[in-house]
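2 proteins. here.
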Amino acid sequence: MDFRAALLEQTRAFGDAIRSADPATPVPTCGDWTVRQLFRHVGRGNLWAAQMISERRSQPLDPRDVSGGRPPDDPQAATEWLNAGAHAVIDAVDRVGSDARVWTFLGARPAGWWIRRRLHETTVHRADAAVALGAEFELSPELAADALTEWIDHACVDTRHAAPLDRGQSLHLHATDERLGPTGEWSIVHGEDGVSWSHTHDKGTVALRGPAKELLLAAVRRRTAAEAGLEVFGDTAVWETWLERTPY
C-alpha cells in the first residue's frame, strides 16, 4: 500500500467532508468536541508530527508549540492549511530519511512510521466527521484492514495502559471481505511472554466476524459490535475488556 498517497487522499476527503459543515456541530464519537475542534485536531496533528520529525525529537512536542498550528478562519485557507499539513509530514520524512529514529508514542521508531500513523488517525477521524454529519463512511477493505492491523499492533505494545487481554485470554477478528486473504484475520493472545498477535486463523476466547471496515469501527469504538452488524462468538466480556483497555 502506498501510505503517502493514501495520507494525502484521506486528508483531502476529510476536508471535503466538513468543508461546508457548521463548525459548532457536535461530534458524538469524540466526547464534547465540535467539528471545529476535530478539524483542528487532525490538521495540527499532522503539523505536530512533521515538526517532531524535522527536529528529530527524542521527546514529544507540546501541541501548543506547533508552528502554524492554528487553522485560518477563512474556509478555503483552512482547507489548504489542512492539506499542507499532510504534505509536511511526507516532506519531513524525506528530509531526515525514513529510517531516522524519532520519538513516537511507542518509543523511538523510524520517521517513516509517522506517515502510516497519521494516515490511519485521519481515516478514523473521517469516520467521526461522517457520524457527526449523518453521512455515509466509505473505506476500501484493504485500507480498513491495514488500519486495524496498525491499531492492533499499537495496542499490543502500548505500555501506557493495562494489557488489553488478561493472561490466557485471546481475541480473533475475521474480515469477511473476499480479497483480503490472510491480512483479513487477526489473532491476539496473552500468553507467557505477554500480548502478541498474528495474521492467523485461530479460535479465540471471543471472536468477531464481519467486513473489515466494520471491524475497524468497532475496534476503535466508533460503533458497537451490534451497530456494526458483526457476528460475535464466545465470551463477550473479553471483547469489552479489550475495548476498555485500548482507548483510541
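next one coming up
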Amino acid sequence: MTHTDRILPGIVLMLGFCATAPLIDAASKLAAQTLPVGQITTARFVVQAALMAPVCLALGQSLRLPRGSGWALIARALCLIASTYCFVAALTVMPIADALAIAFVEPFLLLILGNLLFRDPVGPRRIAACAVGFAGSLLIIRPSLAAFGPLALFPLGTALFFALYMLVTRSLSRRMHPIAMQYHTATVATAICLPVMLLAAGRDWPTLSPIMPQGLAWVWLAGVGAASAVAHLMMTYALRAAPAATLAPLHYLEIVSAVALGYLIFADFPDVLTWVGIAVIVGSGLYIIARERHTARQPATVAIAVGLTPQDPTP
C-alpha cells in the first residue's frame, strides 16, 4: 500500500477517534453521579493498563519498564492523572461540550510552554492566535463561573497539565514505542493512584474516598478505561497512516461529537455565548495549524504544536 493509499484509512481512524473520545467524558460524567472523582480517575488507568497489556504483547513490546525511563514515565503519569482528575471534576457540574471547549486551549499553552522550556520558535502571529483562543475560552468560562463556581476553572487545569504531559511525551517518544508508552504510563498511574485510594478509604475525603459501585456504575467505570484505550489506539494508528498536518484539523470535530452526546444523554446544549467561544477557539487553533503547515519541515512539528501525537492525544 502506498503512502497516498494510507491517508484515507488514517482519516477514517481519526474520525473514529473523534467519535470515541467523548465516550470517555460521557462515561466519566455518568460515573460521577454516584462515585468520587479520584475513584473514576483511578479506574481509567486500571482498565486501560489491563486492556493495553495484551496489545503490547501482540506487538512484541515488553511489559517491563524500560531502563532509564522511570522518572520520565512517573512525570508523564502524574501529568495525566492531574489532567484527568481536573476534567472529571469539571464534568461533575459542567456540560461535556463546555468543559471540552475550554480544555482545547491546550495547544496554545503547549506553544507557549514549548517556547519557554525548549526555545521553540513562536512568532507574533501565533502568539496573537493564542491570545484570541484564550479569549474564546473566557467567553465560556465567565458564565460557567457564575453558574458552577470555581469548578468551571478545572478544564484550564486539564489544558495546563496535558500540555506538560505532551512535553514529557516529546522526550520519551524518541525512546519508546507509542503503544508501550501508553501501557507503561497507565501502569505507573495505577501504581500511584491505588495507594491514594487505599489511604482515603474510610476517611472524610469526598473526592477521594472510594465507594463500592452499584449497578450500572460498574459499567461506567469500565467504560472510562475502555473508551480511553480504544480512542488512543485509533489516534495512534491514524497518525501512523497519515500525516499529522492532514489529521490535525479533524481533531476539532470531537466538539461536534461531544455536543451530540451531551444532548442525547444529559439534555445539555451549548448556549449562544458558548458557541461563539467554541468558534473562536476552533478558528484560532486552525490558524495555528495552518501556520505550522506553512512553516514546518516535518509533520512531527505540527503534531507537537497542536497537541496531536501518536502517543496519547486526549486527557
